[in-house]
């Protein structure tokens, strides 16, 4: 099938799957939003799955309740004293601040579609409008009471001014009568009692009193007129604030009644978007946050048996069949299914387990019922008689050399007679790299000896040099003088679109060797195993097999 047709088919399959998921989400939301669930609980409030009719009923009930409470409060305000009014203003302002802070928080993306949130927000908006107008009414009542309770303005009456004016005229008449007397008599009387000065002062005082009373009356009348105007304005302001308070609820917009089908479609689309986007967001987090953290953790080091490492030579290219010739004092152990031809001479026997000290591991990795061949110069041909994709290579372990190897890849062992190749088990339960590679145990094979290993479509053995990065499934083994760890996959886009794993294995720089499988999936028809087989493979890998 052409690559273009494959891509079109894959896209059509993806689109169809998500279209079906969208329809299922829309159907589920429609069922919940119909109110079936909320009707199961009669005493429950408005839930997130209430129907549109239930939401509208709650909005109308909240509006009627707010109107009733406002009317009751306005009628009570008239009977309160100033101290009570000021106390209520302070309490309402505190509550108003809380409401404004709550309404300033617009909530999440889904809050505009959640019935419970819609009703709660509408109630807070009603309460805010009521409190704002109640504060204005209370302040207007305080202003009016302040004006009405102010000290009365004392204004001289016209009678008092007329009486004062009469006394002024009498004093003036007395002055004129004194001035009408003969000069000698005025001189004597004024000389004896100072009558002229007394009469003049008395006339001036009485006439000044008339002007003072007239001025006080004019000023008092002007102040009384101004206060009356202020009281009228205060009463008018109170009436306006009371009227505005009763009309305040009308200014609170009832939440828009959304189209039910559009609402369900939007919710289903958002849910589908979250389902589709979540894995990609998680991948971004893993790639840019978790993977760099994992790279900085300490690598895994496997100790050598003798404390010194012998340099392992590079073998030749892997082959479908491999001829093994024994030297004096050597023996060959071959796994079942890989002994193709052997010499007619030599000594042959059965070796029940590769290593009795690790009998469970030997059984789990298939290293049981091995064919043992002895005889100097004996040539044996080893090949995968039951696997058409497997190729073999021979790794020579010198004295002091060691190789970390998966026993599943081991086909045959050449070792000195009476001195089996030492096999050691190394647990790394407290290593983050071990947990990230899902391999908590490692097996090390120590020389001298030869290891025959297999791999799908071939086995590649190369020097670590500056360090090597490879896929986890490709690892067959590495020499013990190398450090083993994980690293982030080289490029982001292939990982982001699911073409590459997040982490790859890595061996640090060194002169040791890395043994990898050319095509690990070739012996599985190119498919990753799932289900029980995949679980078994993961378990074997955890135990280093």
CATH superfamily of one domain: Mitochondrial biogenesis AIM24
Give the oligomer, counting copies of the same chain as homo and different chains as hetero: single chain
Question: Helical percent range?
Answer: 40-55%
Structural class category: alpha+beta
Strand content: 15-25%
- What does the main sheet amount to? 6 strands, antiparallel
Query: On the 0-100 scale, what is the average pLDDT?
Result: 75
Q: Please report the total strand number as a whole number.
A: 18
Q: Can you give me a brief rundown of this structure?
A:
The chain is an alpha+beta fold and 545 residues long. Helix content is 49%, strand content 19%.
What does this molecule look like?
With 545 residues, this protein is α+β, with helices and mostly antiparallel strands. Among the domains are: 1-33 and 259-293, no CATH class; 158-239; 321-542, Mitochondrial biogenesis AIM24 (Double-stranded beta-helix, 4-Layer Sandwich). The chain is 49% helix and 19% strand. It contains 13 helices and 18 strands. The chain has helices spanning 3-33, 36-39, 52-77, 82-104, 115-148, 158-179, 183-193, 195-248, 260-295, 359-364, 432-436, 492-496, 531-542, and strands at 321-325, 330-334, 339-341, 347-353, 368-374, 379-383, 390-397, 402-405, 410-416, 423-427, 441-446, 449-456, 459-465, 468-470, 475-479, 484-488, 503-507, 510-517. A 6-stranded antiparallel β-sheet has the order 4-5-2-9-12-7. It has a 6-stranded antiparallel β-sheet with strand order 10-11-8-15-18-13, with no helix packed on it. Helix 3 runs parallel beside helix 5, helix 4 packs antiparallel against helix 5 (115-148) and helix 5 (115-148) runs antiparallel to helix 8 (195-248). It is rod-shaped. It starts with a helix and ends with a helix. 24% of the residues are buried. The model is unreliable at 37-44 and 523-528 (pLDDT under 50).
